[in-house]
Amino acid sequence: MKMRVETEDDLVAFLRKREAPVFVQGGGTRRLGAVAGEGIDTSGLAGVRIYEPGSLTLVAGAGTPMAEVEAVLAGERQRLAFEVPDMRALLGRDGISTLGGVVAAGASGPRRVQVGAARDHLLGLRFVSGTGVLAKAGGRVMKNVTGLDLGKLLVGSHGALGVITEAAFRVQALPETEATLIGPRGLAEGLAVLRAALGTPFDVSGAAYRGGVALIRVEGMAGSVAYRLRALQDRLGGDWQVEEGAISADLWCGVRDVTAFAGRDGVVWRVSVKPSDALDIVTGLEAEAVFDWGGGLIGLLCAPDVDVRARVQGRGHATRIRGDAPGPVFHPEAAGVAALTRGIKAKFDPRGILGPGVLG
Fold it and tell me: 20 to 30 A Cα–Cα from 166, which one of 51, 181, 285, 341?
């Protein structure tokens, strides 16, 4: 059962009188784990409201399909820089990815190593709190913030602090070309070469390892890309294959969407650690691993009884993306952080009706 809202006023009225649990359901492509309560269908809050290519600004409703956002931007040779992952194949879903879901999940892809995460490109948003209060955070231009940047707090909150109704993003021009260095390497050498590439001045926009192969991407003007490819090969040494254009882009779609694990049995984990800890995390672990962000992001496919969190404890966090295994979906917080989280949750949603169990 779900409640479809067509306007912010509908949502405000619904939440003000609501006492039972609810969860936000945009396109249904990013939700992790089981949820309780009635769904709030935000697909009616759709449409690009403002798009100013000259000022690199886009404002759209939370229910706007990502395909629509990407098509509008592509028409002006622009994009969302943080490379939004498409989780449908990995999670086995057929829904429509929406802009609000991207914000709520804090979804960021391989280019995060160069440009930052989704929250770094968010200019502002509108949302309705658990008490039915409509709020606005940020604006439509990039500026220094004094005090709490409220909008950033909702990025990655999975709908547990408020229901996002509109988001404004800074966008980026599409590069003239892209190219990827492909080098067969053993795991230890492969991860080391990724870290080395990210430590160069050659503006690497992707550093991943999967299937025994290191992948290093550069983007920009054709002349600059060619120069940086040569410089990286000289700096890193060893043999490298180069793929450009659409072939390079397809490689990074596979990294971004973790297609290596799509349609396969097992529990999928998303592990975030220091890149220098990646090798130790996976050594001896009964799991198949793929790596992004120079080793800082690890995707693991394993059996339900593999204790991933015990291996990660004290060095990062592990989120269960797909499948059933002991323990919660999200990594348990340290006592001090958990207390802070509960305090924030109590301010935004004192009745605890939004996404019960997602936050403390």
Answer: 341
In angstroms, the CA 52 to CA 309 distance is: 44
What is the C-alpha to C-alpha distance for residues 108 and 59, in angstroms, rounded to an integer?
Answer: 18
359 burial type by CB count under 10 A (0-12 exposed, 13-18 middle, 19+ buried): buried
Q: How far apart are CA 242 and CA 328, in angstroms?
A: 42
How many Å separate Cα 209 from the centre of its chain?
18
Residue of 255, 300, 297 whose CA lies nearest to 274: 297
Tell me the C-alpha to C-alpha distance, in Å, between residue 105 and each of 101, 155, 158, 228: 6, 7, 5, 33
What CATH code would you report for 2-173?
3.30.465.10
**Crossing angle for the helix pair 187-198 and 222-236, to the nearest 10 degrees:** 130
For residue 106, CA distances in Å to 30, 188, 219, 254, 350 come to 10, 30, 23, 19, 23
Give per-residue pLDDT as tens, 266-320: 999 999 999 999 999 999 999 999 999 999 999 999 999 999 999 999 999 999 9
Q: Tell me the domain boundaries of the chain.
A: 2-173, 177-197+214-248, 258-351
